[in-house]
Each structure stands twice: as structure tokens, then as C-alpha cells.
Amino acid sequence: MKNIKDQENLSQKIVLLRLDLNVPLKNGFITDETRIDKIVPILNFLIKKKSKIIIISHVGRPRGEFNKIFSLKPICENLEKKLKKKIQLLDDNIFKLTKKDLFKSPKNQIVFLENIRFYKEEEKNDVFFAKHLASLADLYVNDAFSCSHRLHASISKITEFLPSYAGLQLETEINALKKVTTEIKKPITCIIGGSKILTKISIIKNLIPKFDNIIIVGAMANSIINYKGYNIGKSIKELNCETAVKEIFKTSKNHPCEITFPEDVLVGKNINDLSKVKKLNDIENNDIILDIGPTTVQKIKEIIKISKTVLWNGPAGYFENPNFAGGSYEIAKAIVKKNKEKSIYSVIGGGDTIALINQLNVIQDFNFVSTAGGAFLEYLEGKELPGIKALNQNV
Fold it and tell me: For residues 199 and 161, what is the distance between their CA atoms, to the nearest angstrom?
């Protein structure tokens, strides 16, 4: 694919820049700015080149309807402060915008289009929507690796109508993941969390032949604990996943890959409760599993200790409550210790995992931090991401 940094004449060119600024918001305030910080380099690059920039992004899942809760306004304001540059947020109907409506003032160099997912055509990968977006600019740049697994209009269809390029961050993300998949140092461990095991079954099965250890934590682990015959009380569990879990263990028997899941857990009666350590046999009907227990933590730390490469996607528990953050914190500290000894290559991915390590202020102590969650895992699985495929075809 072509990279925007290799283009020489960008002065006064209108660049349609697809970013992932889907940051966590609470009452209109940004609670984690990592995704914003990571795209500052591409903006500074284009500003220096004297390009005119149209930013496309989304927040949340408004499902094709306008909802001010999902407005990009707080992100726009945050970027203004970071760049020390006025940014105009256009809340006009995109279908009514034309090229001549933009950058009317010579002082305007950056405009934001309001949340692209306010339009149902975006997630439908609508060809006419993509064509209209393309009509607003001279070229397109995708610097949203974390969205590149989506078959959406502003990710994949748009490249059919404009000269298209990879952004600086997108290339960095791909290079880091290539290093893990092609220059791999064993033993290699993958720590994977999240709530839905069905969406990750093919990923886990694909990783089993390549990895030495796969550690399943978070709400995903509840499905495995339940499959193994233990009561999980009121814990989150995915329905109809027994076949998927069975396939994981069946696949692992044909390869030297060990599947690790919790041996003990921390439970509460609700998510705001104090924590209580329980063995799997002791979980009661009104318990909710919200973190891994001390025996499991120690086992994971021992696996990390002997690993040369570790990939981590998904916290071990409900870390928003400090009483259930201990498992995730201990995993992070074990990886950081190895990193400081320069005896491990560490890659982490996903918004929740990043929020967690930001709480510990150790983001700089990992080799690579990917803001991608689903795209991160699908790339590791070996899938061809629609956004990357579209850029590769536009040469």
C-alpha cells in the first residue's frame, strides 16, 4: 500500500482523514486520551505539509441516528488544545455538504465532520455515501487501524473513488504486529479477555498452533468455568458456547499449547461490592465473578516469567472497581518487570487494556501499545482486514 509520508506535493490538497477517535466519554468528558494522542503525528505531518484536513471519525454506536451523547464536540475541543489550532466541527447534514462549503476562510485548515455513524449508510458500506464523501476531498488517508476490520463506507468503499494512502499510525501498528507474527521469539503467550468467546473462537483456534500458552481471563473465562462443570452464580456467561469451548480444548490437544483459565476467583454480590476469594467449588448462586484469584494470578505470573513474547488483549476483571483490579494490575506489573529487564517483547491491544495500564502509568513500559481491539485480534488470526485490503488494491 502507499503511505502518505512518501507523497511530496500535499500543499493545499484536501485530505479526507479517517481516524479512530472512539474514546471513552463520561458525562461529556474524555476519560482516556490515548487514541487522540496517537493520531497527533499524522495531523502535525499534514499541517506542516499545508494540507487542508477533513477528519472523519465516530464515537460509540449511535446506530445511524443523531444522538448528541455521541457528538465529537469534546474530542474536537481536546484536539484544538493539543494542536493549538482552531478546528471547525461541521454538524451539517453530510449529504448537503459540497467541496466549496469547506475551508471558506483561509485560516481554516482542519474541519471535523460530525460522528460518521450518525449515518446508517456508513455501516452499510453504501457506495453512494462513500462516493459523496470522496467528492469532498482530493485524496484519502486511513490512519484508523483499529477500525480497519470493519466493512464500512469510510474504511473500505471510499478507496474506490479517491487516491488512497495509509497513515503514519496505521503503518506503525501493522509493522509491530508483523514483528510478532513473523519474527516471533518463543515461548509466546497470549492473554485474552473480553466477554464473548464465540466471536473469538476462530482467533483462539488459529493461535493455538503458533503459541505456547493461551490464557483466558475476564468474562470469557466464565464460559469455560461453566463448561467445566462449576457454578458461576450470576456471572456474565455467553449462551450456546459449549461447542466453541469444546473445540478450543480439542484443538489444543493436537498442539503443544497450554490453555490456562482461572483456578480461583474474586466474587462480589454486585459490581460495587467488596471482593472475596473463592475456589471454583465454592461459588454460590448469588455470586458474580469479577476478577481472577491469587492462585491464578501466581500461575499467570510464572507463565509470563518464562515467556519471550506476550500479547495481551482484555483485562482480567472488572478493574473499574479497585476491589477487582488486582488481577489485571499484577499481570501488568509482571510484564513491565520483564520489559525493564529487556527479556520480553510485549504488545497490548484494546481500549480497556490501555485504560488499565494508564491507571498504573506504565504505558511507556510496553514495547507496543495498539489502540485496536477487534482489528488487533483479527490480524493475528490471519484474516484480511477490509480497510487494509482496500488500501492494497488502491495502488
Answer: 32
101 domain-assigned: yes
pLDDT of amino acid 231: 97
Residue 26 is predicted with a pLDDT of 85
Whole-number pLDDT of residue 337 = 96
Q: Strand, helix or coil at 155?
A: coil
CA 244 to chain centroid, in Å, comes to 23
Task: Check which CATH number belongs to the domain holding 16 and give it.
Answer: 3.40.50.1260
Residues 43 and 163 in one domain: yes
Alpha-carbon distance of 128 to 259, in angstroms, equals 46
SS3 assignment, position 13: coil
Q: Which letter, b or e, does each residue of 133-149 get, where b requires 16 or more Cβ atoms within 10 Å of its Cβ?
A: bbebbbbbbbbbbbbbb
Same domain, 161 and 189: no
Report the distance separating Cα 199 and Cα 197, nearest Å. Answer: 5
For the chain, the domain total comes to: 2
Do 151 and 196 belong to one domain?
no
Cis peptide upstream of residue 187 (ω within 30 degrees of 0) = yes
How high is the pLDDT of residue 196?
Answer: 66
Cell 512518501 identifies what position? 6
Global confidence as pTM: 0.83
Contact 389, 140 (CB under 8 A): no
CB 319 within 8 A of CB 325: yes
**139 and 232 co-located in one domain:** no
Residue type, 172: T
Regarding whether 266 and 161 lie in a shared domain, the answer is no
Listed residue (308, 323, 219, 339) closest to 275, CA to CA = 323
Say yes or no: 327 and 257 in one domain.
yes
Q: Domain limits at 139? A: 4-169+386-393
Q: Are 222 and 289 in contact (CB under 8 A)?
A: yes
Task: Kindly report the length of the chain.
Answer: 395
Q: Which residues of the chain have pLDDT under 50?
A: none
Indicate whether 349 and 245 sit together in one domain.
yes
Residues 163 and 210 in one domain: no
Among candidate residues 186, 159, 183, the one with its CA nearest the CA of residue 170: 159
